[in-house]
Fold:
Amino acid sequence: MIVKDISDVERIGRNTVTIRFSWDQKVEPGQFIMVWMPDHSEIPISVSHTGLLKGITIRSYGETSEAMIGLKKGDRIFFRGPYGRPFDIKPGRKLVVGGGSGMAGLLPLVDSSAYGVVSARTSSDLLFADRFAEGHVTMVTDDGTAGIRGFAIDGVKSLQLDEFDMMYVCGPELMLKSILDYVADKPIPAQFSLERTMKCGIGICDSCSIDGRQLCTEGPTFSKEELMGLHEFGTTRLTESGKRIQIGRH
Structure:
């Protein structure tokens, strides 16, 4: 277990924070760490800042994340990693598509030429739309309070995909499935970062299994072609108790 002092905590919106800490370990875009807090379960969190001063961006969605957003400068953070297969970064212009907190794991990919589709339920939940160059982002909200009213797929459909050399996508699985279905027969290459229940992070517990593949070691990033061959993608997942249920149900 690695223990680091928190250098800074940035509040982002109503229920999201970025926690920064110094760590000289190389972390590649798309990788994650398993974060622990006393009296709480470990959870996987993507590394949103991959320089010497690392950062993780957390949105409150459960007991551990709720406790983490209460941390402050000088507190300690406990974690292990980094884990997972990173994005295979290709030369050329990037299209970066993030839904909800999924945008955090894509942030290291954003450069001056990248174009973003940033989606969320409402305007106050949009993450890192301001990190794209002026005129290089399409915002999408479920309720229409910012940008296009609709979902991430609507933002993608509004673009000319032949202007981009690679698409990188992260967010809820049903969002990823809708985008995969749309680009399946299009020439644009695409990589997707999946989010599923994960307990160990090292391929032992099987909680993140999808078609027999361990998300924590063989993912979380997959190419368009790989996902098209996974029948459980966008349809079923395992709960923390190991029960297989349909995606979208709790």
